[in-house]
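Researcher: I'm preparing a figure for a lab meeting and need a structural model of a single chain. I don't have an experimental structure, so a prediction will have to do for now. The sequence is pasted below. Please return the structure as tokens so I can convert it later.
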Amino acid sequence: MPFPPSAAAVENLEPKDVWELFAEMSAVPRPSKHEQQIRAHMRKTAEGMGFTVREDAVGNMVIEVPATKGCENAPITVLQGHLDMVCEKNSGTEHDFDNDPIRLVLDTEDGAQIVRADGTTLGADNGIGVCMALAAAKSPDVKHGPLEILCTIDEEMGMTGAKALEPDFFQGRRLVNLDSEEDEAIYIGCAGGRDSNLTWRLPLTKAPENAEFCRVIVAGLAGGHSGGDIHLNRGNAIKLLVRVLRCVDDGGLQLASLTGGSKRNAIPREAIAVVSGPTGLIEKLRDAAADVQAETREHGNEPNCVIEIETAGADAVASEADTHRVLTAIAALPHGVLSVVPEIAGLVQTSNSTSTAICDTDDGKLRITVGCLSRSSLRAELHETARRIAAIGELGGAEVESGNEYPGWAPDVDSKTLAVCRRVYQEQFGAEPNVTAIHAGLECGLIGERVGEGQMDMVSFGPRIEGAHSPDERIWVASVQKSYKMLVAVLAELVKG
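Model: Understood. Here is the structure written out token by token.
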């Protein structure tokens, strides 16, 4: 099958089957919660390979792959990944994620080949993992026992697909998750998570006569994964925006709108507010913006940060008192690492990302909703973080909602599948893998909970991906080769029992 024009850049890469499948996948829209097109594509692709496909009520999919000849009596291995992708694009990039293909670009970084997208997220998280599983199933050269390729939906927006899994939807009880992003690591644990929303409904009024209106824009930040990149201390556009506004919140500032971020699991890269105030507001904001921009570039790990002030207008604004309450509460919300795992150097234990700010007008009121995603490998700390956020919201006069919790994945150092993967990695690459846990959420915790405690033997590995959940997302070509080689060798070894 010819490569789609949007993906021709990868047609000469190896492993050819993996990249061909990824090229085809990249041509199909697959935003979270809108996976109908990619589900149909996957069904057609898998059935075209001669495999049986089953779907559950919410759209999760199992592709049944018979064992290679002579391996029929081996235990079933589940290969697992998710079909959806985070949809982020740069300012000025024209892209409709519901209809347009991802445009793939072959590039180099530090002398190595990478694949990225043209101004958008790439979707290697987790499309490349799904494609490695299918490529291994398709190849007559790969030795394996019976396989079930479990493809879940809506992983990126709350893991609702995994939450809906029924224990008997798949039969295998050892699972290889292919949603990791460091090719020297084997993951055996992950953090759990919980969402919190703070909502204000603020009465609107006309701004005073002769008020100045302006728009404050924060842009140019790196963003990234709100779990996997939270330890990098990258700038948060919402928090920086509020920091600028609070520099002039000493009387007369009135908020007309405030928006920022777009995905709860991505660190916000851009934020915008429209405000009014007394004469001199624009000059004061420009001074504050220049100071915050300079500090962020120099000390905030954000050399491309841009904070701009433009003249603007608005029909109505919130009161000074309400504006002060909202800005103060957002400023108090935690963002970043809250604690680390004492036993594992460098591993985050608990964090919070203040990720989204949504604004609209409802029944004559300005409605602002700020969304947070808290993560922790300890449920007690996860709940305490949610309580802390709720307390800040209550002090700020917000309505607080908290829920959509998903469990972490507790490490099992005695896992038989882990022992196989460690041995294979050492044999293939001549070094010991980094066996660890990840602060981001993987579906393994939910899958284990749905099947039953202690019933699933699970590991996770995958190729090197950086910048996931942002338009900087890129994947290393040599790493795909390495991870696919690892997968093929692991499947052959698992045939033995």
